[in-house]
Every structure is written in structure tokens, then in C-alpha cells.
Amino acid sequence: MPNHNIQRLSEDIKREIAVSLREVDTGDVVSVSHCELTNDLSYCKVYISTFKGGNATINAVEKLKKQSGYFKKNINSRIKMRKIPELIFLPDNSLDYYDKISTIINDLNEEHTSRAEENQDEY
Predict the structure, then answer these.
(1) Global pTM value
(2) Superfamily assignment of 4-92 in CATH?
(3) Mean pLDDT estimate for the chain
């Protein structure tokens, strides 16, 4: 059963990182899709996404990793915790995955439509 305090802290950390992202230059529009905080509050996985996706997301994550101390300092000033978790920035390429699935579905629909038109022409 998930601990509600950990979920709340995870959302608070997500919010503070999102606010801090406004002041960091990553070269692209970056958003925090979600955060996962471990039960012992030692680590926090921060999933980052960009609108361009792919390599742009990976590049943004690399830039954010270099500035993790800045984010920890901002979190510490706004959220009162005994220990600030180690931030692990990870790319969230779920938008790319959804785009790929959407393309596959559209291709199937076009194939189905063209077959239906061929069958109508036969009659």
C-alpha cells in the first residue's frame, strides 16, 4: 500500500522542480512528467519530457543532471525535509511512444479503408 506522505512529497518535489526549470536554460521547452520518490526518501527519479522528443529530451536531461545541486537547493529552501533526496533525471519518451502507436493505428485505418474501397469496386 503506497504511503500518502511519500506521494505528497513526490508531488511537492515535482512542483518545485517545475518552478525552478523556468530559470534554467535547457535549449528547449522542458516539463516534468512525474517524480518517483523512494520509501526511504534517498532518491527521487524525475522524468523529463520535451515537445521535440527523442534526442532533445536526452540533451535536456544531461543539462539538468549537471544542475542537480541547484534544484536540491531550491527544494531545500521550500520543502522542509530532514534529507533532500538525490535527484535522478531520466528522459520520458512516452510522447514518442504514443506518436508511434498513433501512426500504426492510422496506417491500419488507411489500409482497412483502401481494402473496403477495393471490395466496393468489385460489386
Answers:
(1) 0.75
(2) K homology (KH) domain (3.30.300.20)
(3) 85
